[in-house]
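Usage

Read records sequentially. Each one opens with the input sequence:
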Amino acid sequence: MARISTLMQYRFGEQQIAGRQRELLSAQLQLSSGRRIATPSDDPLGAADASTVRSGLSRLVQYKDNQGHARFLLNQAETVVSKLGEAVVETQERLVAAGNGAYGDQERRALARDLQGLLDRIVGLANSQDGAGGYLFAGTRDGAAPFVQNGNLVAFRGDGTSQRLEVANDRLLQVKFSGDDLLLKIRPGNGSFVTAADAGNTGAASIDAGAVTSPAALSGSAYTIDFDGASYVVTRLADSAQTVVAPSASGPTTIELDGMRVTLNGTAAAGDRFTIAPAGYQSLFDTLGQAIAMLQTPLADAAARARFNSTYANVLASVEQAADHLRLKRAESGSALSELDGYEQVNEERSLEHEARRSTVEDLDYAQAASELTRRQTAFEAAIRSYSVVSKLSLFNYL
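and closes with the structure output:
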């Protein structure tokens, strides 16, 4: 028969009181904190689940911060690109006015001064800051202004790297445009090829900007158009193939070949040459510089007027290409902002889902917790009363 000593009874009673007290304090802590899991030992599996959910919430909070910063930068870029587009439209208006045949050298020089002001404004817009000490269009070299102006020449000091932010899981959204892509990589002329008249031409013929009649037929080669006194000789420089075209007796001469069409206006002189070349890239600043130089050049005779007309046609077409390019870039900003709206909505929905899951795992059911507190309070008081009774017992209680 096991013998239970008085000391063992006392220690058992003390352990019961201590155990019930810990349970009571745990219930009180849950009610005061509003959380079911105060320490991982309260529910190891639930604590692990809650940790995973909190980690997900932390990522969603970071995405939300990135989305806010991305929206700030994209709104700034959209505004500046819009203003750049407005400046290019004003440039078009000045150039259309410059085409007025009644204008003399003085009027054209006045328009050149207007274009100089527009060039300065465009450089200022291109050097817009991002509100955080950097520049919107500098790429990753945003510690200094990306565009440096020296008269009508503008150099780019940034780089072509696009800055991106992670706005959703595995989604990096472009939030800054490089000035290289925005203002330097623009197709001049009609966008496919450019035409020009040689500076030494002495006749009164000019060439227009041309047009593409069949994109699939374009050869990608450069061409020369030489007037030999009787006919225009078109030479494809890639293989020296030649085509002879007789000038029209009743009006402009139209030449069509290899998916291209160009028109020659006026009477050419023997030895006059015109060129056609594939359109590479030309910056908006170079196009404006070309327009300013064109308007500042006096037109002393019919040959000078013809050279002006050839340059004018290409400059006007190049400015139209720049306007289209900036409209496309503004549309890209709008598309990015629209995409961001979708990510923000998804992020908000996922945050609510994660928060609901976290609440389910961690948060306290107050009605159940209050009932449990009452039960544990009763158990604690019972343990104390039981110990009090047992501690007073002696052998004399049985005699």
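Summary fields computed downstream for this record:
- The helical segments are 6-33, 44-98, 105-126, 179-184, 284-296, 302-362, 366-392.
- Residues 34 and 364 are 5 Å apart (CA to CA).
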